[in-house]
Design brief:
The chain has 137 residues and is mainly alpha-helical. It has 4 helices and no strands. Helix 2 runs antiparallel to helix 3. The model has no long low-confidence stretch (mean pLDDT 79).
Length: 137
């Protein structure tokens, strides 16, 4: 993804309830912050060397810690994204494996009505079945 595409996503971002979109937005922001921090480490280090001030070295140390923390947050966001994707995959698999619920599972009516309904639904002739459940010869 190019910087222009990332900028476009950031500009067009609208908060949503989709965790994957939120992850993508956060990842882009953390990535840009980490990249900017790394680009400025050399400049800040050179400036601190010129100043030769203990407080400047302390600020440089804090800056480096912040860049490292941003990197940790980026990796943590990646781990959380993997967990979210696995949870969604498990939910989808469970939905596919779950038995389908039927609105009506019972039949209300007489045996004659049931025979007629079955005969209408299939081409089997149920008139030859005796009432004790055995076939007539």
């Amino acid at each position: 993804m190019t910087d222009e595409e990332q900028d476009k996503i950031i500009e067009e971002y609208v908060p949503a309830n989709d965790m994957l979109e939120d992850y993508e937005f956060s990842r882009i922001v953390y990535y840009k912050l980490a990249k900017a921090g790394l680009e400025n480490v050399d400049k800040l280090s050179a400036l601190v060397d010129e100043m030769d001030n203990p407080r400047a070295y302390e600020i440089l140390g804090g800056f480096l810690k912040n860049v490292a923390d941003i990197n940790d947050k980026l990796l943590d966001a990646q781990r959380k994204n993997q967990v979210l994707r696995q949870e969604e995959a498990i939910k989808r698999a469970a939905q596919l494996e779950a038995p389908q619920k039927h609105a009506q599972l019972g039949f209300t009516g007489s045996t004659k009505d049931l025979k007629e309904a079955l005969h209408a639904a299939t081409d089997v002739d149920f008139t030859e079945v005796e009432e004790d459940g055995t076939d007539s010869p």
